[in-house]
Amino acid sequence: MQLGFVGLGKMGLNMVTRLERGGHDIVAYDRSAEAVGRAESMKASGVSSLEALVGALQPPRHVWVMVPAGDPTESTIVALSSLLSAGDTIIDGGNTNFHDDQRRAKTLAAKQLHYVDAGTSGGIWGLTEGYCLMVGGEPDVCRRLEPVFLTLAPKDGYLHVGDHGAGHYVKMVHNGIEYGMMQAYAEGFELMHESPYTIDLAKVAGLWDHGSVVRSWLLQLAARALEDDKELSTITGYVEDSGEGRWTVLEGIEHSVPMPVLTASLYTRFRSRQNNPFGERMLAALRNQFGGHAVKKAK
């Protein structure tokens, strides 16, 4: 199947490679000429502009957008919508807010363009393991794109989950759950690290991945990280968030769904990025005020 592909970062380039290996005809574009060159080395047809990409595709055209969420995705889709023709389709595979999907689908429909949101999970391992795809949009349009989805996904790793926005909604919840799982592993391994026993944490992670009820791909990655650096001494405990955990918590508030684990894991990430935060200093000050407890003076 012929497919235009915009965005050749770590995930995008791997996806193009997997698609080319699966026999698809990929026309690839990125603002970086070097990235386009890498795609060409994987047998894709590289172009230097969105105009050239659209011109190289046969109608009905299908263009997959894999750029950072927010303004980069928005501006790319707006630009494409002015170049494409009635019956063409734009697929957003990034981490987009489902509200934006709903708005874009209506805007593009007015131009007789189709829109598909594809929540994509797999990270840098997707090239070999495949990408789990959660897809939202018109059923007939998604069926037409199934050759692409089935090539990118592992066996049973693709599902049409609903109308416009449903794909990114399911991916949002997926990422919220991921936050909670990661936090649980982090706390458990820290407790073993601080225990009175000398425990080989990498071996425990490997052990738990064989028959344990907590086995998972994340646990395999934990074992790999601990094998490389037993004390994780080469990194700092600074943890960013992609935004989807925040959206998940906000949806929980909107629908009165209690999510204490997901909320706490998100807030823990916020705290990891602070150095001697005001809130902790306030706690120390109050304890000193009411009980005369000692405080550590700032240097």
Description:
With 299 residues, the protein is α/β, with parallel strands linked by helices. Helices cover 52% and strands 13% of the residues. An 8-stranded mixed sheet has the order 3-2-1-4-5-6-7-8, with helices on both faces. Strand 4, helix 4 and strand 5 form a beta-alpha-beta unit. Helix 9 packs across helix 13. The N and C termini lie far apart (64 Å). The mean pLDDT is 96.
Number of strands: 8
Number of helices: 14
Radius of gyration: 23 Å
Mean pLDDT: 96
Multimerization status: single chain
Main sheet? Answer: 8 strands, mixed
SSE order, as H and E?
Answer: EHEHEHEHEHEHEHHEHHHHHH
* β-sheet strand percentage: 5-15%
- The main sheet orders its strands as 3-2-1-4-5-6-7-8
Task: Pick out the low-confidence regions.
Answer: none
N→C terminal distance: 64 Å
Task: Provide a compact summary of the structure.
This protein is α/β, with parallel strands linked by helices.
Key structural traits:
8 strands; globular; single chain; 14 helices; alpha/beta
Describe the protein's topology.
Elements: E1 2-6, H1 10-21, E2 25-29, H2 33-41, E3 45-46, H3 50-56, E4 62-65, H4 71-81, E5 89-92, H5 98-109, E6 114-121, H6 126-129, E7 132-136, H7 139-144, H8 146-152, E8 158-162, H9 166-193, H10 201-208, H11 217-228, H12 244-254, H13 260-272, H14 278-291
Parallel strand pairs: 1-2, 1-4, 2-3, 4-5, 5-6, 7-8
Antiparallel strand pairs: 6-7
Helix pairs in contact: 9-12, 9-13, 10-11
